[in-house]
Prior knowledge:
By secondary structure, the chain is mostly beta strands. It has helices at about 10-15, 85, 265-270, 360-365, 440, 485-490; strands at about 35-45, 55-60, 65-70, 75, 80, 115-120, 125-135, 140-150, 155-160, 175, 210, 215, 245-250, 280, 285-295, 305-315, 315-320, 330-335, 345-350, 355-360, 370-375, 385, 395, 400-405, 420-425, 450, 455, 460, 465, 470, 495, 505-510.
Amino acid sequence: xxxxxxSLPLLLVAVVMGGLVYxxxxxxxxxxxxxxxxVGHIETFTLDTPTDVFSSAxxxxxxxxxxxxxxxxxxxxxxxxxxxxxxxxxTQGSVMTQSGLALNDPNPPPVAFETxxxxxxxxxxxxxxxxxxISQQSLNTSGGYIRQIDYTTGEMCVGLSPTPATTCVAPDTxxxxxxxxxxxxxxxxxxxxSPDLRFTVDPDNPTIHAGTGYxxxxxxxxxPTVDPQCPITNRPKDAGGHSLTTWAMSGPDIVPxxxxxxxxxxxxxxxQTCDPTQQAPFVVGDYIDFAGTFTxxxxxxxxxxxxxxxxxxxxxxxxxxxxxxxxxxSQETTFLGTGPINCSAAAECQAKIRMVGFTTDPSRxxxxxxxxxxxxxxxxxxxxxxxxxxxxxxxxxxxxxxxxDVAKNTGLTPDGKGATRELLVSIDDNGPMPDGTLVxxxxxxxxxxxxxxxxxxxxxxxxxxxxxxxxxxxxxxxxPANLKCLAFLTAGWxxxxxxxxxxxxxxxxxxxxxxxxxxxxxxxxxxxxxxxx
Length: 533
């Protein structure tokens, strides 16, 4: 709808009548802080102190310059980096004068990169971010059928039809998993290099998986030769020799307790050997959704390809039901409230959580063995779990899907801890883990290591969606984003050095500076009070 403009003569009449002013806009008083969320292409990106690994930075998005404070951790689809580490480029070498992510860089990227910046406008003069996310395009997802797999490069050809192809030509898409460690197949091709180490898969929590969360892979050798870490035998066949798209890896057939769903046949019934402790391979004919970065390698006939960090296959892989059996789980969507600080009579504040995920054993959901934990991390890198829901799992229509949806609950943001950066979903056959349990003692247990080093029965992921206070009265002053209730921003955070996977140096990350708020909070957990209703 086009906005109507007031003509100049009418405007003069409206403003000046007998010395009185009519129709003039009411001026709002300047507030010390107001919230903002910017989503758009990165136009400029500069470091303030290139020699400082924690350097502050400035970024321009939609024509608006935003201050990125010192000590910021930027969240990518499956990795964390400081702004300075992003300037080490795709190879993570020496710090460069450009990140290669901004449209106005001397050597701009072939496709624009998108950022989401959340923070506060301070004193009507400066945008200061508290949360920074970067991806090539956060909602850019493609899909199609695997038409060809090149086992010498680990590359898949994805197109409109499941009909096999002999060569990959447009409009089919070349898809290669950005996997420098080789967790899901070849280490990103024969050269064992990644086109961009900043946008890789998650090597610990499967971002390459089936619809149920079962980890998948591309065999490193052509079938019928068996890759022991990605065995083709983990794709059972029907009587006609066609690879199944729904099956159970072991145990008896599964009869879903839901009307209209067929029995899920087991490898044992088929008398075919399947190993639930190993990944399942993609095969020609699978339908996949994939996301990653658009890049090119100079191939004359088809130079463009997608370097994928996420693949979700339309394949239903289930595991033997019941306590004690190997099981996999994944997170899909999470929303986490930040608490009631900065609330007023005209504001709605949230301390709630909503999470949707999938598991290969739906019986663990109905038995309330699925739990959600906040992971509290101090500046020394000590990681502790905090049970948020204590077994309150809820089954949904998709067989294997679970959902947690809990309204205001002080347990989500207790005093001294605040909302966390990471959340864990875990299947706990022996009951939920107590508060304060060290993560390494429970979650990295060797008994959970399966599938080429991936963890079974748990999934850790950063939270991408925080629920900040919102006004309930249109036109009222907007409540600022209560970033002080994010403990990792206020009290700091500790994490392994992110530059190389083999570097175990701890990065001791202090509070953001400048603070993205009108008042700087105490820089300790004791100063966080976000749970009073």
